[in-house]
Design a protein that fits this description.
Radius of gyration: 15 Å
Oligomer: single chain
Distance between the termini: 39 Å
Number of strands: 6
Order of helices and strands: EHEHEHEHEE
Number of helices: 4
Amino acid sequence: MAERLLILRHGEAGPGVPDAERELTGQGSHEVGRLAAWLAARDEPAGLRLLASPYRRARQTAAIIGEALGVPVETLPILTPDDDPSAVVDWLLAQPEGRPLMLVSHMPLVGALTGLLVEGRTDRGPGFPTAALAELEAEVWAAGCARLARFNTPSDLTPRVR
């Protein structure tokens, strides 16, 4: 049975120093809120484990998602912007099977991690706009072994006018 991994880039953040303390803007909170409502309407499978970078904007993003889905947020120190995607893959391999995971992080890590898992190369990942979500499936979390099942950006969630 395939495992599920959701990789989410945080919502739009304002400028600031230090980088780790930057906060979501009003627009960022809004786009993440829309994504959270969309996820909640999809009836995400029970047991979702939600992990966020220790950076403030990622924790804020995860809190909005966690509230909508009724799941607690855990902090994972290896999800900061410049962390090594291989370290995240090693962490994924050590996790028990059968429980879907959502990682809330930053560019360039989200793109590099997606590229590594799907294409086997960190330079092949998609560009992630803020609040973009990649959904991956795999039998094992190893380089080149995942399938990109879906990729959504906030604009994909905009109701279509007929």
